Amino acid sequence: MIGSWLNWRTLLVLIAIIIASGTIVYSQYLAGKIATEERKNVAAWVEAQRTILNSGDTASINLATKISTENDQIPIIETNEKDQITGNFLNLDTALVKNQAGYLQDKLRQFKRYNATPIISVLLVSPYAANKYYYGESPMLKETKLYPIVQLVVVALFSIIAIVMLQTNYKSAQNQLWASLAKETAHQLGTPVSSLEGWLEILKETPGNEKIIPEIAKDVKRLQLISDRFGKIGSPPKLEPVLVADQITSILNYMKKRAGGEVVFEWDQSTIVATQVNLSAPLFDWVMENLIKNALDAIDGKGLINITAHTNNHEMIIDITDSGKGISALNITKVFNPGFTTKKRGWGLGLSLSKRIVEQYHKGKLTIKWSELNKGTCFRIILPLPPSIMQA
User: Are 223 and 193 in contact, with CB atoms under 8 Å apart?
Assistant: First the structure.
């Protein structure tokens, strides 16, 4: 149970939480100590003010003056016993006090929220007269309280950078693995395909095989094409102007013969008949075959497969829709992950490689436009148009 969630991501999150919690706790501890010291300093300042006013001893006055002048950080407002501002204040912006009528009142309310208990200096016992001193946070205390926020932002940024770098390295290694696997598959296919070509030549020389030789030749050629496609994975393909309508028509003609009589194909090419897109034809065929095969699997040999295509100002959009069983909400975010498959037999590479071909090699997009259980699925391919034919 623990091993299923204990990985580098959760470990990184736990470390970040521990650092954040420790920072907040220690900062609050420091802020509390500073606040206590500041109250003592304000009390000493108030006592110094009273000494300056009432004492006749020169030494006491000199000490009180020193204490009084050393407070250049903590803002203080003086009020009378009725909480009316007397006009005396310390460490506040005098320009704002002069130009803004309610500035001192706003500050007083702010100081009362920070510390509702003022320091009181009693002037007369009867009739009662006193000065109250409200004070706010010094710049040092404010910075201490802001420090954990700044540190948390820094920790969060470093965590995000670390996660992005790790994910990038992981994807790079994963892509390299699939590319190597594809090239090895092409290499392994090469020998038996060459042998099949040799046996095909022998069959041609044997009377009575005239009817089956063309079909066998088509399948051998298909195997050569598949081997060629696998060999192209991992290497930048050569993109050439291709009539997409003709390319899709050719793929459909091949797939129809192997789909069965209960599958209905609809292909609307009217809006893109003469439109060319820069493609690697073998790789594009592979993508279309993968999507059509998935559609055939989804309808289980009986249903509708509809393909439409159109262009806008800068791209061609191809939709492949089936009337099959659809994809569950749980799996819809996983279908492009390498190795993910719901089939009993399969590697789970078709859609992953198709997405790589469309997005990395052709600078397009392959997405699921929509999917609904027991109603069907629509895959969408978006390909950029060549600059020469983009509409204004």
Answer: yes
Tell me the C-alpha distance between 149 and 24, whole Å.
8
Helix (H) / strand (E) element for 76: namely strand 76-80
Which phi and psi angles does 305 have, rounded to 5°?
-125, 120
CB 246 within 8 A of CB 205: no
Label residue 234 left, alpha or beta by phi (over 0 means left) and psi (-120 to 50 means alpha).
left
Strand partners, 263: 303
pLDDT digits (tens, 9 = 90+) for 335-365: 888 777 777 666 667 888 899 889 988 999 9
Q: What is the DSSP-derived secondary structure letter of residue 388?
A: G
**pLDDT tens digits for 109-146?**
998 888 888 888 888 888 888 889 999 888 888 888 88
The reply to whether omega before 127 is within 30° of 0 (cis) is yes
What whole-number distance in Å separates Cα of residue 281 and Cα of residue 290? 14
Cα torsion angle, 248, 254, 255, 260, sign: positive
Q: Are 133 and 78 in contact (CB under 8 A)?
A: yes
Partners of 377 in beta bridges:
322, 371
Beta strands of 91-158 (E only): which ranges? 119-124, 129-135
DSSP state of 386: P
Determine whether 101 is exposed, middle or buried from the number of CB atoms within 10 Å of its CB (0-12, 13-18, 19+): exposed
Would you give the end-to-end CA distance of the chain in angstroms? Answer: 58
How far apart, in whole angstroms, are the C-alpha atoms of residue 42 and residue 132?
A: 11
Tokens 């893109």: give the residue.
Answer: 272
Residue labelled with tokens 């559609």: 295
This prediction has a pTM of 0.55
Instruction: Supply 363's token pair.
Output: 């600078």
Please choose, from the candidates 353, 254, 362, 373, the residue with its C-alpha nearest in 3D space to the C-alpha of residue 318: 362
- Residues, the chain: 392
- CB 350, CB 229: distance < 8 Å: no
